[in-house]
Each structure stands twice: as structure tokens, then as C-alpha cells.
Amino acid sequence: MLAAARIVVWRELLVAMRRRSDVATALLFFVIVTSLFPLGIGAEPNKLRAIAPGVIWVAALLSSMLSLGRLFAADHADGTLEQMVLGAAPLGVTAAAKAFAHWLVSGLPLVAIAPLLALQYDLDAGLYGVLALSLLLGTPVLSLVGGIGAALTLGVRGGGVLLALLVLPLYVPVLVMGAGAVEMASAGLGGQGQLLILGAMLIVAVAFAPWATAAALRISSE
Amino acid sequence: MRWFWYASPQTFYPLAGKLAVAGGLAAAVLAVVGLYVGLLVAPTDAQQGEAYRIIFIHVPAAWMSMFIYVVMAFWAGLGLAFNTRLSGMMASALAPTGALFTFIALWTGALWGRPTWGTYWVWGDARLMSELILLFLYFGFMALHASIEDPRRADRAAALLALVGVVNIPIIYYSVKWWNTLHQGASVSMTAAPKMAATMLAGMLVMALAFWAYSIAAAMLRVRSLIRERAA
Fold first, then answer.
1. Residue B31 forms part of a structural domain
2. What band does B55 get if pLDDT is binned at 50, 70 and 90?
3. What letters, b where the CB count within 10 A reaches 16 and e where it falls short, cover A100-129?
């Protein structure tokens, strides 16, 4: 079972390495969206400092959602997904491995680059740790929950926009807690409460989302 | 009672017709009584004046918005587990009514919030946010169902989404307790003595029953047209 998961993760990473521009696009999107806000809102430093956690989190949400389309689409198109559904390895494990690989490719780089963007927004240096930690706990939830939406919209008319409609409402609690952790910390109250809730969300998502994704994949590949 | 007798769309069709008529009549009578009690009999609130009277619509609509989602998820789960055709149709028939009540709850809440809180909408409030998410969940359910050609596959995919979204219901229900934000606590509680005048409570409960009856009537009419649509 673990061997199957390892192989899926390895294969996904290999595919991502072969198509490096896809990975770079999602990351660039993240950077561009966060750079748009100061241009639209104005360059007033206090205002920017106040909106920084929210902006970075919303950009992370959108960037993670945009790359969800690729999670199963290529495998669905060339028939690999059918083999995965029929194969001996439990489909839930495959789904979990795919979500993990998606996070490694699209979530982890965001965690790494977020402090740099926070620097642009002149966020207090003491908050970089909380911001990175909240993203570290929150972005895997996005990949796991997004996997359900990606599996449900496979081969569906207008899949991309529909995926946003399905997934974004489910992302809202992560956004509220993630941005909330940084805001609480910046108010000097410590963001532990929000971080703990994010951790709890991650545990629940790890336990249930792959299972739901597997059920969705079975429905989509009938 | 042979429950599974009605699991077949053909045998359920006439029953749905009868339920729709009964529900529609009950809704009309109960709404007239409820609005009479609520608008004319119930006393004016000491703090909020006449503006409070919108709760006779707002609170029952908010209850129904959550309750219909749970019922919808129940049918969705039943459909996934037993692969019955009628379950998926019931879930699809309930979704628009649920979305309607969610919208009414948000809309009347905004109208009430303006004179009472001084604002139509508060972004930070947990209950408002989760009710808005509920509206999006209903829209997502309907959009996913509409975008899949094969009705059986659409039923199953939308059912899974409904079950995932059911996580939101306890969050809405307890949001006022967990996060102490602007929206006040529950108006009515099963455990504590009622904090409001008996006529107010009666008006609200009658309105809630009227909304129940309306929901049954609307869902039954819709399930009838779904049965005919798919049989063709």
C-alpha cells in the first residue's frame, strides 16, 4: 500500500518535472495576484500591512485551485485513471498520494515564497513564522479538499468554472483560520488557537478527503 | 407500512401529487394564521419596535435553509448507498427550495440588520458567513447536477458533493455559540424557558410549519416533473 503511494507520488513529481512551466505558472500567478492588490488599493503602508495576511491567503487559495484542474485531467484523458480505478492498489491511497504530490508541487512553493511577499507588504518580521506555518498547515487541506472537486468535475461541461464554484466555498474555513492566525498574532494575541484548528482541519481532511475523492473518481469513470 | 413500495418513481408519482396538494393547502392556511398572529396579534418589541416582526419570516426561513440541506444530504446518502432512482430526484427537487430559503434568510436578515445593527451586512460575522457558504453549496449542487448529461451520474456526483457540504451545517448552527460575534444567540431553545412572549413564539412556530408545508408541496411538485422528465 505504501509502495503504491510512493510510486504514485514519484510518478506525479516526474510528470511535474517534465512540465516545469505548469508549476512555474501557478507560482507566478500567486506572485502576480498579490502584486495586484497594492496597485488597486493604493500604496499606503499601514493599509497594506493590515491586508497582507488576507491577500496572501486568497492568492494561495486561487493559485491552488487553478492547478487542481491538472490533478486528474491528463490521466482521465489517456485512460490511466481507469487503470488506477481498476488496479489492485486501494483508490483512496492513490487519491491521497495524488493530493500529496499536488501539494508538493503547488502548495509547498507557496509556503516558501510567502515570507518574500510578506516582506513586500512590510509585514512585521515576527509574523513570517506564523504566516508560513499557517500556509504549511492550510495548503495541504486545499489540495485534499480540492481533489474531491477535481474528481467530481472530470469530463464535465465547463469544468474549470464549475470547479471554482464547488471548491471555493469549501475553502472558506481554511481561509478564515489561516488569515485569522496571522491577524491574531499581529494583534499580539498569538495565533495558536487558529493554528490548532487548522491542524484539526488537516487531520480531518487527511482522514476523509481521499476516501471521498476515491468515491468521486468511481462516479466519474463509470 | 411498506416503505419500499414507494421507492419506485411510478408508485410514488400519485402519492407525490396528493402530498403536493395537501402541503400547498396547509401552507396557505398556516401562513395566513402565522402572519395574522405575527403582524397583528404579537406585541411590539420593547427594544426593536416593529422592525422585529421580520423574524416571523427570517427565523423559520433560516431553520428551513439548514434543515432542507440535511434532508437533501439524507436523500443523497440514501441514493449513493442503495442506488435508488427516487432518492436522487428527491435531492434535486429539494435543492432549489433550500436555496430559496437560504436567500430569504439572508435577505430578510439584511433588511432587519439595517435598522437594528445599523448595517445591511457584516463580513466578520460567523453566522452570516456560514449561511452565505450554505447558499453557495446549494448553487454548487445545482450547477454540478446541471452540467452532467447522464441524470444518474449527475445524481451520484451531486450526492457526494451534498454529503461533503453537510460539514457546514453544524458550523452554522453553533457559530453563534462558538464565535461570539454580532449575530445574537438562538431565538428559541428546546432546553431553556422561552425568552419571548408566548404569542411571538406561537407566530414563529406557525410560520415554521407553513414553510415546512410549502417545502413539501414545492419539492413534491418538482419531483413529479422530474419523474415525468426522466421517464420520457
1. yes
2. confident
3. bbbbbbbbebbbebbbebbeebebeeebbe
Domain that holds residue A172: 2-220
Can you give the pLDDT of all 222 residues of chain A as single tens digits? 788 889 989 999 998 888 888 888 888 999 999 888 888 888 788 888 888 888 999 999 999 998 888 888 888 888 888 888 888 888 999 999 999 999 999 899 999 998 888 888 888 888 888 899 999 999 999 999 999 999 999 888 777 888 998 998 889 888 888 888 888 888 877 788 889 989 999 999 999 999 999 999 998 887
The shortest CB-CB distance from A156 to any of B147, B165, B171 is to B147
Interface predicted TM-score (ipTM) of this complex, two decimals: 0.85
Q: What is the mean pLDDT of residues B61-69?
A: 92
A156 vs B contacts (CB less than 8 Å):
144, 147-148
Confirm or reject contact between B157 and chain A (CB < 8 A): yes
> Which of A166, A170, A215 is closest, CB to CB, to B144?
A166
Residue B83 within a domain: yes
* Chain A: residue whose CA lies nearest to B159: A216
Q: How many domains does chain B have?
A: 1
> What's the pTM value of the predicted model, to 2 decimals?
0.87
Give the CA-trace dihedral at B87, B89, B93, B95, to 10 degrees: 70
Side-chain-side CA neighbours of B202 within 13 Å: the count stands at: 11
Interface contact B83, partner A, CB < 8 A: no
Residue of B nearest to A221 (CA): B153
B129/A176 CB distance under 8 A = yes
Residue B140 touches chain A, beta carbons under 8 Å: yes
Looking at beta carbons, which residues of chain A come within 8 Å of B136? 165, 168-169
What is the widest separation between alpha-carbon atoms in chain B? 58
Does pLDDT of B174 surpass 80?
Answer: no
Domain count, chain A: 1
Chain B residues within an 8 Å CB radius of A148: 160-161, 164
**Does any domain span residue B4?**
no
- Residue B32 lies inside a defined structural domain of this protein: yes
Distances (CA, A) of B33 to A34, B28, B127, B185, B210: 55, 9, 29, 27, 9
CB contact under 8 A, A166 and B143: yes
